[in-house]
Amino acid sequence: MIFCFSGTGNSMHVANKIAERTGERLVDISESIIEKNETYEIEKNEKMGFVFPVYWYCMPKIVEKFIVQLKLSGYRKQYVYAITTYGIAAGNVMDRLIQTLRNKQVQLNGIFGVQMIDNYVVGYNIINVEKQSTILKKAEVEIDKIMLMIECREDIEYIKKGRIRFVTPITGYGYRKANHIKKFFVTQKCNGCKQCENSCPCNTIHMMDGKPMWLGECTFCLKCINGCKQSAIQYGKFTEKRDRYQYK
């Protein structure tokens, strides 16, 4: 069983690759999935994985929300692992995951991280295509290594935390408290296609008078701004001239 959340496709690529190799069920975490409140059956020899990106050295709010309400049947200390994708480093992102799982009486055995392309266009520009290619080639090698460790059910921590991982409690607090939606807007390029509304994992985007509005809880995955084919979605003053990124 693999539980995955992905904004622009990095984490979903990792999860898909593992699922294709193992034949395990892949659950795409979203607000709709959370509302279903399903009970997940874990088989005797089945592994359970969580795959998600790092936001501000923190796991996405929607992932934590999902795990808090997660209902499992048949869990008997089977092998549990987590993989996070990050642009520069992961910080101490797994600390909160470990505690959240512990509250569910679930033990995390394998901790992994994979460097991929940073999609944080609201903070800085996306790296060029040549650098993207280099990072993604290295990522494939790392994913293969991680899959072997998972198959061997290794109790291991294989992740780059970074030099300033000690700021994780501060950045995590800021991430969870920030009003992420207030600076989103659309330009005249918007054609009302509804792609952003239909693809938002948090059901935060709603079309009003043919234009998207951001209302409610946002996990700040940036799927909308990176995925808009018209480049009509902007955030603040500086994103209009920046590139966009989605895993191809």
What separation lies between the terminal Cα atoms?
Answer: 24 Å
The total number of structural domains is: 2
The side-by-side strand order for the widest beta sheet comes to 2-1-4-6-7-8
CATH fold descriptor of the largest domain = Rossmann fold
The percent of residues in helical segments reads 25-40%
Task: Please count the helical segments.
Answer: 8
Order of helices and strands: EHEHEEHEEHEHEHEHEEHE
Structural class: alpha/beta
The CATH class name of the largest domain reads Alpha Beta
Give a structural overview.
The model has no long low-confidence stretch (mean pLDDT 97). The strands form four sheets. Strands 2-1-4-6-7-8 form a six-stranded parallel sheet, covered by helices on one side. The protein has two domains: 2-175, Rossmann fold (3-Layer(aba) Sandwich), CATH 3.40.50; 180-235, Alpha-Beta Plaits. α5 links the parallel β7 and β8 (156-158). The protein is of the alpha/beta class. It has helices at 10-22, 31-36, 61-68, 93-102, 129-151, 168-177, 195-199, 223-227; strands at 2-4, 26-28, 39-41, 48-53, 71-73, 80-86, 110-115, 156-158, 184-186, 205-208, 211-214, 233-235.
